[in-house]
Amino acid sequence: MSYVKTLFNRNFLEYASYVIKDRAIPDIGDGLKPVQRRILHSLFEVDDGKFHKVANIVGHCMKYHPHGDASIYSALVVLANKDLFIDKQGNFGNPITGDEASAARYIECRILPFAKKVLYSPQVTEYVDSYDGRNREPVVFPSKIPVLLIQGAEGIAVGMSTKILPHNFEEVLRAVVSELKGEPFQLFPDFPNGGLVDVSDYQDGLGKVLIRAKLDTKDPKRIIIKEIPFGTTTESLIASIEAAARKGRVKISQINDYTSEAVEIEIKLARGVYTKEVVDSLFAYTDCEYSVSVNLLVIKDGLPTQMTVPEVIRYHARQLVAVLEAELKVEEADLKEKIHARTLERIFIEERIYKRIEEMKTRETVISAVIEGFKPFKKEIPREVTEEDVERLLKIPIRRISLYDIEKARKELAELQGRLKEVRYHLKNLVAYAIGFIEGVLKDTAGRFPRRTKVGRFEKVDVREVAARDLDLRYDAKTGYLGYDLKGGDSLFAVNQYDRVLIIRGDGTYRVTDVPEKMFVGKGLMYCGIADKEELADCHFSIVYQDTVTKHLYIKRCTIEQFILEKDYDLLPEGAKPLAFTTREDQEIVLNYKPKPRLKILEENFRVSDFLVKSVKAGGVRLSTKEVKSLKLRKAKKKAEDA
Length: 643
Prior knowledge:
By secondary structure, this protein is of the alpha+beta class. It has 4 domains: 2-182 and 297-306, Topoisomerase II, domain 5 (Alpha-Beta Complex), CATH 3.90.199; 214-287, 2-Layer Sandwich (Gyrase A, domain 2); 321-429, no CATH class; 464-635, no CATH class. It comes from Sediminispirochaeta smaragdinae (strain DSM 11293 / JCM 15392 / SEBR 4228).
């Protein structure tokens, strides 16, 4: 048993770790999940400037992704529809309307040059073996921009999930520049389908946002939806409106979808209903408004880590500098090698060193003769001449030597030396170089990524406030049932399904509950009213009860302000029998006593308002110790000082 438990725990942890790191959660380095990274890697490998069938890309990607073609195809379509790295041709579906893409064999795609500029750098990329060991794939692309924040991400793993909202491309890159300059910045989400967003509780990517559709309400009898909320489609939005209309929550007569390139959903209102009366209902009962909780969870240094938007920007600002430094060092080494090779080639041909090998009989003497020939020009040569250098020189064809253009060679060498000087300057001024790189990207993409979502502040529409009270709450004293689904009994007041009611039963117990369809509350119901805390604070409950042991009469006056839903409470002390109840202040209690010897006063009146209102837990005030013949409540007479 212990072995099985250990085996289960180990296997479960391995599975959970795999799902978290290799399936559902994006890496902070390039903002991509493994399937997305493998798709881009495949596109880089096959790139020849032409479009490729998506089916071919999917097949190529299966060398790296061991989870079947369907997952690769759907991930490629989603990635292509973000219009950032992939150029597409054919029907890739429509994220706004919810239309699906054509089959993989009918549509084509290719990698954009922009993707190569910001992601592709094989010289500084770490590669590992693919799942079958036959190929090599990147661990993480050395991304120069925060793809994570630009594209957003969503994923559910084992025991954790991530929800990262997309942000505006230009704003994200300007935030990186601000971070490099040491200036403050602030970022808010921006959705491709526009709409409105309230970011007052965004908390830098760890809170929530309130998203709304953009409505045109100029016409009093017609509403036009011009932009839909993030995460919805025109199809799902229309379905939510139709569902609300069927339940009578939104009064419309017709809904038409004229969406083509831009969203245009027309809602015609019912007779006698006007736009201003329906807008709040649309926000309350349909997908025209909803709240999104965000959780910026990423893989960082191989571990799932929760971060904030500013932390991601700071991470990528450092990564940008590090990647550019690594690329510059690679270029510096490459330039130095090219300058060395070109210098050797020039001296070899210009000084006719190749003539020295004509009489040499062996390979060793040939190499020795060439190396010896370079010694007088040692100051011009960047480093020591090696056998590999000599082998390369000896492979130069005679035709090339005879046509060698010394001036052209000197010019090319000067250009290489000039570029080397630039590279070394950039290495000494990396932050300025990084800022220049980002500003260059912004210049190249100017106007391509305008902000689509308007940031504002608005209150979430409470369905309880919008809901019409069109249900008749009834109480049947004969059966003891209360509810809006009763056919008989007495009508109490109008409610809606979101209301809560306070019920005080005939035995002196009370509870607050959601409006019931049909619920047994017992015979002799003393009170039932809307459980609104503000109204309850001003409502004074007065109850006259008798102690069943001593037979003494008491009055208790209190308010009921605090309660737990669906929990029963005692309004009276144990052993108390309720006799009369009122919520009115202008009442008086009339007690008639049983005649007894030496009892002169047979009737007493007590004004309810003369007694203090206390907490619901306080005990009552004794009214009388005499035996009561009858008790009644009536409207109190005015006091002499009030008259």
